[in-house]
Amino acid sequence: MAPVTERNQRTEQLNGSERIDVPLFVKVITGLTGTIAVVLGVWAAIATDSHPQYVDGAYDVVLSWGARALGIGLACFVAVFFIRDARGYVIALAASWVREVLDLIDLFRVEGDFRTQLWGVLIGSVVLHSTALFLSVRAVTNSRASTSVRAQDLGSSMSRATS
Questions:
Q1: Among 32, 50, 89, 111, which residue's Cβ finds the most Cβ atoms within 10 Å?
Q2: Cα–Cα distance between 124 and 112 in angstroms, integer?
Q3: Residue 3 and residue 158: Cα distance in Å, rounded?
């Protein structure tokens, strides 16, 4: 498969609109995010008291966190396996990015060694999500720009044909 660039971006017809492809990096990050989020979400639902988010009888907090992770994970799977379009990746990655940034902000309230161990993981995750989200938005933007140019070319061709 050829790398996705502004010049050779693969598009397909999909219900009257073009499907916009994204770089492999975006697909991998979204797929991994989906897998990790679904596993953590199911784990929170099945074995709440053994989940890393569990603290002293706070079942409702773990279940809420798990439901959020499961929902974002399923959104990532839908983007990767069903929608397969940059616009779907943008939506799934935006939701995941917000979750990651809020988890990073929430880390300021946590005390102890656990906090120190999570800094690198969360910062790395935010950087990966930010990069994947940027690449997805760029694919959509580039597609819109090329569609606009094609429409202008078509309009000028039609005006020359009628004159």
A1: 89
A2: 20
A3: 33
CA angle (133, 140, 15) in 5-degree steps: 125
pLDDT in tens, 1-15: 455 554 444 444 445
Please tell me the number of Cα atoms within 13 Å of 80 on its side-chain side: 20
What CA–CA distance (Å, rounded) separates 93 from 33? 9
Contact 69, 41 (CB under 8 A): yes
CA proximity to 86, closest of 126, 131, 132, 127: 132
Q: Are 90 and 140 in contact (CB under 8 A)?
A: yes
**Angle at alpha carbon of residue 103, lines to 100 and 104, rounded to 5°:** 85
Beta bridge partners of 19: 12
- Main-chain phi, psi angles of 105, to 5 degrees: -65, -40
* φ, ψ dihedrals at 57, nearest 5°: 75, 15
Element (H, E) at 81: none
Residues 121-136 have pLDDT tens digits of 888 888 999 999 999 9
